[in-house]
Each structure stands twice: as structure tokens, then as C-alpha cells.
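>> received
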Amino acid sequence: MSQQKPNMAEKREHLYKVLVIGDLGVGKTSVIKRYVHQFFSQHYRATIGVDFALKVINWDSDTLIRLQLWDIAGQERFGNMTRVYYKEAVGCFIVFDVTRVSTFEAVSKWKNDLDAKVQLPDGSKIPCVLLANKCDQSKEGLVNNSSQMDEYCKDKGFIGWYETSAKENINIDEAARFLVSSILDNDKAASHDDREQDNDKLALDSTESGEGRGKGSCC
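>> returned
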């Protein structure tokens, strides 16, 4: 009878829901396919409603992350389902196409819609990264000025932005790692706050029940 080797260290596992939103045809599906499957095609049908992909990340020696990517159709901002789609998300990519200024002009509307419909448990905005996609092609508008883009992102509440190309595999992994780092930081902060609250409650409970008095005390 063979003996199983004991697990020396169990990996901590996290499941995070991340939204990928933006106007129709900006390359959301291509970005996800490149990130998850290292695959690119010129021929994708427009997403209808919402699609899903799962990326498993061995973050470090004791942390495994399952990233559930929600690919939401470009026209969905005008529908009533986005509140359902956004529910329980902890991070987001908003994507625009650098060759079409109109898709950049729509970014603030997507961001406002996102902030109105989903928040972290503490009521703060979920971390969101702006992707200036198709950067392998000629760029139009503000994206040509990086300092102005920095200012724009700061003003709109993005944690950062990246020029990306799903076709040439530019900055996709870097942008994802940046977002996941922010999600992990928020998760750790929330866990710390929960522990503090639990400790406060334990201290309060023990005081109220008379515990914690000196053993030799008499009243």
C-alpha cells in the first residue's frame, strides 16, 4: 500500500473576477485570447452579451490565482444587464482602440458606468487599468502624449494605463500583472481590517464577560 507524501505547504488560492469592457471592436476578445491562450486571430465575431475566460497564475511559491475574465460586449453599456455582469468584480480593464478617437472619447462613459455600479466591500472604487490597444498601428489623439495620458488617468481614477497590442503581444502580461498586484494589495488590506475588527470584538466580548481580569483580583 503506497503512502502519500504529506503536503509541506498548501498554496493559498484566490479567485478574482475581472471585467474587460470598452466600445465595440477595440480588441477586448483579442486581448483576453492573447493573455489566456497566447493566441491571436484577425477573425473574431463580435461578443454577444458576455463571454468568460479563466487564467490560472502561479503568482509566487505559495499563492495561486484564478483570474476569471469577463469579456463584456461593447454595446452592453446601453443595456440594463451591466449591473449584473459587474457584480462582485474586484478589478477591470477598460480598452480603447488607438486608431479610433471615438473609442477613447467613450472611455469616461465606461468608467463612470463602472464606478456607479460596482464597488469594493469598503465602498471604494475597484482598481481599473486603461489599455490603449492596437499600438502596433498608427495612433490618433491624446495617446500620442504620454504625460497628458498620465494626467487623464489620474483625473478619471485609473490606477494606470498601458499601450498594448494583442497582435504583437505588447504589454498584455505586464498590464495584467499590474492590475493583479493592486487586487492582491486590496485583498490583504481588507483581510487586515477584518482581523483588526475581530480582535476588537474579542477584546470587547472578553471585557464584557469579565474575562481578562487579573487572576488574583477580588471585588
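>> The chain is about 35% helix and 20% strand.
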